[in-house]
Amino acid sequence: GGENFQAVRKSLRKFASTDASTLLTGDTGTGKSFLSGSIHFNSPRRDHPFVKINCANIPETLLEAEFFGAKKGAYTGSVADREGFFQAACGGTLFLDEIGDLPLSMQAKLLRVIQERQVRQLGAAQETAIDVRIVSATHKDLAAEVQAGRFRQDLFYRLNVIEIVVPPLRERREDLPALCQALLARIAADSGAPVVSLSARQMAEIAAAPLDGNVRELENLLHRAVA
To answer: What is the DSSP code string of 105-129?
Structure first.
């Protein structure tokens, strides 16, 4: 790929080798979820679980049980012990996507778990130790959310030890050849078809596209080109 792509890969390996909480910021569709996996699988935790969670998709009433687990009978409908995200990711990495959508009440509970490295299941009498690296992502400006009172400042500092800003695709068009090659290989693997190459005309059309949808839009364009 381009020099920018190679520089990002080199930096990513350096960040991945640490165990510090990492915050990925950038527009929707820039590939933050993919980068979270790259961080985990290039880290010393690579042989342990990688658990991906979209905070925006969990009903507020279920957040605590989903994150921390619950003992049988802890709430109505709880018919068996259930493992939470922190227990599932123990020893590995917990990726919290759309962290900016987490309600303030849950932010306080998440902060406590991160600070104390202990979690208590709903209905449990004792806390248990957890060993998890936190990688989070958001398309929101969390600093502005803190100023507006919608995100806890103390949690922001806990999550933002290392920040990786993922620029929109329109600002890194030199990465397009490498990205197209990787995405075409994935499309071929998913469909069972051989890997195809783009013609010069197709590549020029893609390079001239607005790409406001970032990598997600690029993948759609490549699916059409393959078809």
So the answer is: HHHHHHHHHHHHTEE--BT-SS-EE
